[in-house]
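Supplementary notes for students who missed Thursday's class. We covered one full example, reproduced here. Read the sequence, then the structure, then the short commentary at the end.
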Amino acid sequence: MGITPFRAIPPLSDRDRQRFESKVERSDSCWLWKGWTRDGIGYGLFNISFQTEYGSATGQFAAHRIAYVLTNGAIPPGYDVLHSCDVRACVNPAHLRIGTDQDNALDKTLRGRHPRGGRIPGIALVRRVLPPRFGERRLFTKWNDEQIREMRQRYAREDTATAAGLGREYGMGKNGAALILTGQSRREAGGPIASALRPIVGRRVPGSKLTDAVIAQIREAYGAGQGTLDDLAAQFQIVPQTVSKIVQGKAWKHVPGVGPPPIRVPQPNLEPPSVNRALGEHHHAAKLTDRAVVEIRTRYAETPDLTATDLAREYRVSKTQVCFILKGKSRVRAGGPLAPIRVLRGQRARGAAKPKLDAARVTDIRQRYAEGGETIYTLAKRFGVSAGLVSDLIRGKAWKHLPLPPGLHVRPRHRKLTAAEVDAIRCAGTDRNVTHDWLARRFGISRSAVSVLLEGKAHGPNPYGYVARRKPRVHGASP
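Structure (token representation):
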């Protein structure tokens, strides 16, 4: 059921007239409609049942148009019903008249009821009757002139007011509030305009705990020697760094004063360390006694194979702490011989808690490889180490402190085949039961090398011909 405001009003029955009158609240001026209204607009609505050529129907019509029809008769086609009281819910016939769309737009503009200031699409109005299109007259304006004046008055009256704070309070951004306060926006609204915004210092800083009076009190107390930085920080519940900046004038510079007092340098305490503060084994976090520190240094100096890691694990401290103790960077007063940290090599290297190699085994690996009896992989399998480690031993990249045997060099990984071996491989390749993997293991070469030889891509063409291999047949599978 849609609204039909400009359709001809059908004849009203006596029952419709009674229903219409029951929804009107009469007074000396406007007769207000108490029935349904259009959401967000305010015009009254009234349902009327009427007959059409297709049967009975019900339509929704504007209440003020029905009131005009009941008093003055039918509305001419193409005409609207205008209000002279500017009250949309009014149905008083004395406040209603008819007019065109042009009359309605002009009347609305002259009465100052158009939000866009008179710019109506499709309707040409006289330019001189158009009101200005700025300020609270602008479309979608959120703040009226009264709110703008109140904001400017508060900024001029309250010393702690800021553009950001007023913007949050009035629901606008910091930049928008700054433009309003300085008169760059909404100047016509009136109110005191600030020449420039005040700097955000002191109490204007959000979350500030101090005031100008407290700042003066801190400086006066420090200048009179009534407390140190730590004392004043504890008294005013701030950190000593903030107190230092205040008394030096690096913070709260806008607070007037006679000048920042000098920072007092505390005199050094010449009492013995044991009396001045807890050091060494008397420290609250000390894990080692002086006797244990001397024992660590003595054992490390007398035992060449002992490492800092072993000592840290034995005394249940970190390796870094043991290194500092051995080099004298920590626990100097405990005594004991100081020694530099030894370089970990061989069996003492990292990860050698359970060493697989020693000097004799390394020498044996190098000697066996130099004689040419074994390869890197066979030596790795024999001694239970990786092939990479054996390669580093032979090249001298590992266990550098042991001399290399004369004539030791790394042999090429793939050996050269003789003509007889090449012919034997190709001859055996004609048998379908012989696989490439078996030939590779038999002659000590890779499977890809066997394929290259059989295909004739190396050592000349294959006189026996290349026999394509097929996958072994699975028992029970179809050919």
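Commentary. Confidence is low (pLDDT under 50) at residues 1-5, 116-130, 471-479. DSSP finds 19 helices and six strands in the chain. If anything here is unclear, bring it to office hours.
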